Here is the input.
Amino acid sequence: MDISVIGSGYVGTTIAACFADLGHSVVNIDVDADVVEAINAGDTLIHEEGLPELVAKHAGENGTGRLRATTNYEALLETDVTFLCLPTPQYDDGSIDLSIIETGAEQLGETLKGKSGWHTVVVKSTVVPGTTDDVLTPIIESASGRTAGEDVGVGMNPEFLREGTAVTDFLDPDKIVLGADDERTRRDMQEVFAPLEAETGAPVVETDTRTAEMIKYANNAFLATKVSLINDLGNICKEFGIDAYEVADAIGLDDRISEQFLRSGVGWGGSCFPKDVAAIIAAAKANDYEPTVLEAAVELNDKQPERLLELLDSHVDVEGERVAVLGLAFKPGTDDTRNSRAIEVIEGLQARGARVVGYDPVATENMRERFPDVTYAESAAEALEGAVGAVVVTDWDEFAALDDGFEAMKELVVVDGRRIIEPTPKITYEGLTW
Ligand code: UDX
Here is the structure.
């Protein structure tokens, strides 16, 4: 099929390149000329495992020609289906800001005036239940002069892409969710995903748009709450001197629980869990429902960094002293520091009057933007020199082999928030939940 993808962020670029790899002809539309130029040169500015290879394979002069990019919305007129992959950032109260995607929908609708015949639009962005039906479809109808279900279709297809594994998550999904409110739209969406379904055998969930929107939020909220639950149980284990990981290994054998997302520690961050959980809480409250468990999951997650620092306090007074923060990214495999637990850890150490030295293999520059006055080391060993304590916030593999580095510390106190350090008799070691 001929597909257009509006938005070239990590979702838009990933799905554009993957659709091309499935055999579709794809045009990626973005306002940023630099992004468009990179893709047309067979390159991408997005750091995702496997994505540069896919873009090089399908775009640029050496590519198959199945992927190209442009800043011109008119390009969608030559396509059958348009995916809307635009950001939905968060307001302070947790609700989502639809202004960018509303503008995109408006421009899409205006552009559709130049096409005769049916066109299918698919919302890919994470939007709260009812947004496709009640907000985006009316915008597209009024801007295009079309009527949903008659000469335009608006469906919803949530993404379940993790940072660092977005290409794999797309090409080997555990499910494909197709939300449509009319048969023509459903058929078009089925045709788009038919090669992926044939290739992987992934189950296809066919539903309406607002259920599809909710499936995305429920998926993320459940996973975040599962992590907060194992952190709650992990905190109890710590009080009893029990290793939460030994408990997690045992309960993970119950296939109703599964062993995934049972790594207790300093908590969840990133650009999705915090935003999506806050958004569904805000949407629930806007409908006069108090999501008690979700709110408790957020509250517990917010407390884990302080628990890490209280363990440090129990061994050393950090005021005026150097403390190493090992790991700044919200998880390994990415340079993304959005909502990283390291943010609260750095703030907590600064509140204690400590001199913070941060280290991360790839995320330092992103954290420096937020904390320009913090010192950053080029290596973990450098961060540890003269430190009275070290707190581990990201489970980078390299931290598992640090034992010599601890020798340079002034006091050998190590508090591990991610179960990655190999304790040795030389150091005073504390595990957050073990
Ligand atoms: C998540 C969802 O997994 C993905 O499906 C969705 O599309 C986007 O949001 P991502 O944010 O990239 O993906 O990260 P993920 O790997 O899910 O981890 C989220 C956070 O939970 C990280 O901070 C991670 O450190 C933490 N986590 C995860 C734990 O603390 N313990 C675990 O056992 C698993």
Residues 209-240 form the longest helix (32 residues). The radius of gyration is 24 Å.
